[in-house]
Amino acid sequence: MKVIIANYHYFVDGGPGRYLFNFMRAAQRRGIEVIPFSVQNPRNEKTEYEKYFAKPRADALMYSDTKPTFKNLCGMLRAVVWNFDAAKRLKKLIRDTQPDVVYILHEINHLSPSIIRAAKREGVRVVHRISDFFMFCARYDFLCGDRICEVCIGGRYGGALKRRCVKNSRFCTLLRVAAMKLYQWNHVFEEVDLFVVPSVFTGKKLVEGGIPREKILHLPTFTDMREVVPCYCHEKYFLFIGRMARQKGVIYAIEAMNRLKESGYVLKITGNLSGSDEDRELKSYIAEHHLEKYVLFIGFLEGKELTESISKAACVICPSLWYENMPNTVLEAYACGKPVVASRLGSLEEMVKDGCTGFLFSPRDSHALAGELEKFIEDEDLSGRLGRQARKRCEEKYGEDKHMERLIAALKG
């Protein structure tokens, strides 16, 4: 079997990228040939297929620094609305490699849904994994500020334009809405043979948005546990993993630590603070409440360093404000034998069994979060007891073999 896997990046910088490489390794162990298709970027992993990759949408990698030239404007329009270059290059790749299926992870705002039509015009099956809510939300995350907003489901985009939902910009929002209207008009998503959703919750949202149930396969994400030895003891810290974007809710974890300063525990956060408005708010809160000794930024971690940090934590905190779509953070914690304390929201309610593999709390409620964390402080064996159940759930529900068996059948059709 031969699979082209398409994603807007060919390096790890979030959930889709991590899943991409996990899938490629798992597929290759099963004798499946996997061919990447992506966008040109110096950060990409090396591959013989990079000559087929689509042009980037602008000269600069940091798009906030992109100069407003005519070339860059054309690149932005091409990538966000309809990427003819990506479609042309994917057709060339298909003709040269003769794949059985194109497996799309994330294409919006870079490759664009043009690649769906390109694959179908070449007579190739298309399976699309859904990693967020880009099909129905101009922002992708069903958020307005830090509150859930679903007014765009069903193609009602007036609210997005009114609120300037995309980057607080009228132009960016208009461009995104125009693209979504185009996809409605040309029915491009109807050409997808099968949508793969990691959570039941996401599947329900697709149905609400008009996708037929029979074209949706619920298939949870997997994590490779073969070399991960669970650890049921811990050092006295809680761990937040992920981007410090507003929708991840890290401020509520920091606020919770303000209530736990006398506990002897600290909060460790992967990554470093930047000069963004959101990060300045975090810095300001930490300085105002004298939390420098209790909130530690430990830099970007991956591989063994990340696994080691998870293994030594009392629990992993996932205080998201948006629905999430089965974050890898939870799976990685479970694999290491660590419980998760998460917002009672979206797919997180499916993943975290309250009182069994962790605890759930109301979104945006740092007082409630602090209360759940106090349970680990008061009972130091609690982390190990819940962690054993978390590891067991990971083995039973989120293992590689079960995922790949069902996915391969779906890819074959």
Verbal overview:
This protein has 413 residues and is an alpha/beta fold. It has two domains: 2-222 and 400-412, 3-Layer(aba) Sandwich (Rossmann fold), CATH 3.40.50; 237-397, 3-Layer(aba) Sandwich (Rossmann fold). It is built from 15 helices and 14 strands. The strands form three sheets. A six-stranded parallel beta sheet has the order 2-1-3-4-7-8, sandwiched between helices. α3 (84-97) runs parallel beside α4 (114-121), α8 packs across α13 (366-378) and α11 packs across α14. The protein is globular and about 60 Å long. Mean pLDDT is 92; it is low at 60-65.
What is the CATH C level class of the largest domain, in words? Alpha Beta
Uncertain regions spanning at least 5 consecutive residues: 60-65
Q: Structural class, from secondary structure content? A: alpha/beta
C-alpha geometry:
globular
Q: How many beta-strand runs?
A: 14
Query: How many structural units, i.e. domains?
Result: 2
Query: What is the average per-residue confidence, as pLDDT, rounded to a whole number?
Result: 92
Topology:
Layout: E1 2-7, H1 15-29, E2 33-37, H2 70-80, H3 84-97, E3 101-106, H4 114-121, E4 125-129, E5 143-144, E6 147-148, H5 158-163, H6 170-186, E7 194-197, H7 200-208, E8 216-218, E9 237-240, H8 250-258, E10 266-269, H9 277-288, E11 295-297, H10 303-311, E12 315-318, H11 328-335, E13 340-343, H12 348-351, E14 358-361, H13 366-378, H14 382-397, H15 400-412
Parallel strand pairs: 1-2, 1-3, 3-4, 4-7, 7-8, 9-10, 9-12, 10-11, 12-13, 13-14
Antiparallel strand pairs: 5-6
Helix pairs in contact: 3-4, 8-13, 11-14
